[in-house]
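Let's inspect a concrete specimen:
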Amino acid sequence: MTPSMPTDPTKAGSSGARAHLTAVALGPLAVYSYLFLSGLLSEQPYSPGDFIVYATAISIPILVVLYLLLRYLCGERPSDLNLAPGRWTTDLLAALILSVVTLAANVVTNSLVAEVLPAPPNTGIINLFAWLSRSPGMMALFLGVLLWIGVAQEELTRVFLLSRLWKVWPSTPSRWLAIFVAAGLFGLSHAYQGPTRIVWTATYGVIMGTYYLRYGRVAPLIISHYLTNALQVIVFAMRTST
């Protein structure tokens, strides 16, 4: 059963729709546009320092802006992003299942796309993993605070975008269209990593959006995203160091 969207009596009718769409333009669309353009205009691959800047100097302000838009423009609280009630045990189990699903989809998608759209190795990611493998302390910091903040920002941007659009266009076809639009924007925001990464991140966005549509819970998205990214960082860092 798809969770229903909570109603907001203070933001009804056309004024409510304008508020939600304005929040989308000032929040998620601005975020995805910035990431796409910064990657497109970058003359060199992203360095380890760039990833640290993204996870802190960029992700934290984005989280603050999303909170302000949600609270003062849309008249909601962060807890309202959860479209259904839940328990931490259920959320944790769902996160583990999502992690398995997304890791399997990652392997399959990357294998298929690499055959059709071959691309040179992503030197930015390779350099990041090599740097982390030489610095255990920075690896711990990256896997802790830095990666968690970046992941939380990405998933909260996703659910912010979807929940706003679903309030304006609540029909089932519109909800699915919003999922694919959000996934496409997420994929394009990773254009600097090459075509394989665009397709994979878009696919990932569809998976996470589908879970959010079906179960309406935010924590499993953040935890699962973190677990899959952290595992990939550890595995690739270990490969790079050998």
Summary: Residues 13 and 168 are 9 Å apart (CA to CA). The chain has one domain: 13-241.
